[in-house]
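Hey,
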Amino acid sequence: MIRVLLVDDDALVRAGLRMILGGAPDIEVVGEATDGAAGLDIARDCKPDVVLMDIRMPVMDGINATATLRAADDAPHVIVLTTFDADDLVVQALRAGAGGFLLKDSRPERLVGAVKAVCEGEPVLSPSVTRQLVDRVTASTPDNPANAARLERLTDREHEVAVLISRGLSNADIAADLYMSVPTVKAHVSRILAKLDAGNRVQAAIMVHEASR
């Protein structure tokens, strides 16, 4: 079972998410919170695998809550929820460690699929949105020589995989492009994230783009 925590100050949104996720046989909603601070407390108690996190909330917003969650040992995956496609707050949340984002009006099957995908290390972003977000971040960020140094830690094959990650490709797409099995790609992705000290694929993509400018 995939354990999910809902963090949103809108009771109707939480009810809708609970109803949708409750229909999936392998997903269990283990808690709800109305703000980021309460979400942190509940997460410590219920140990979710995935947190669906609203960005705009009272007391503590989703960006600070995401950063705190992702800094912890055995951190849960975080998917940020928003009503705006790739706005500045989404960019901040992804840099804080969120594994992707979903629009609140996403179709039910997209929501369920995203929860499962993020647990498998897959991006919860389309390739076009990934490129849009990465371009926005790198355009406003000064060059960071440390990123180039981190990329030098990668083997040639890992570098090839990292470049495809930066283009927003899924593990299956990378496997097809490089004629590898999906489990092999997953292993490469795990090593890449560790060597780059990146919390997720989006952070790795940002490093690749900054290093190649």
